[in-house]
Amino acid sequence: MNKTAMVLGATGLVGKAAVEQLLRENWKEVRVLVRRPLALRHDRLKQTVTDWERLERYGDLFEGTDAVFCCLGTTIKKAGSQKNFERVDLEYPLKAAELARKAGVGQFLAVSSMGANPHSRNFYSRTKGRMEEGLSRSGFPGLHLFRPSLLLGEREESRPLERSAAWLMTKLDFVMVGRAAKYRAIKGETVSRAMVHIAAADPKGLHIYPNDVIGVLGKDFAAESDPAWDDEKGLQ
To answer: pTM for this structure?
Structure first.
């Protein structure tokens, strides 16, 4: 894969999985903008410790990038306020999109959320909807918005309520069929695989992927056996 990717939010559940997936799929270079360095080391992984309040300083890093994977996201509890939440989930993605577009990036892939709607009464859904709305005006040849349901996987930070909800939804998974299937909880790894699959295919235009479609795309992108890969530790 003679392409260069950039991952934003590489320490998060989906972002970390996306970095590993891109390296496994032999993308030429994987760039990450992070607040703190990842423990993962690889000769094709280029890390830049970033001051997100001055993101414009890193505009040159978007040059030569084929696809940007935006996996930024936080919680109001961690952010401390709705205003700070909007900075991470709305302002940073839109600023990154602006820099990416100026640099000529062709694809922008972003993790949004089921129920995203700029007119929603729910603050979280409204913020994600506003992000989608802003990105849709950015002018990318290929814009891909992924709307997963509750994400499953091990996070670095503790999210007790989310963990409890994930446990419950996992137990109820067998009854979530038919129309209810689209609400199933989904693994962060599945979302990342779907994103990488789409980036490799490089379809043009605006595309929105609901939860059930993400599940299909993620399953189709099963990892190949690799002696340098350990399921528990990642790339060695």
So the answer is: 0.84
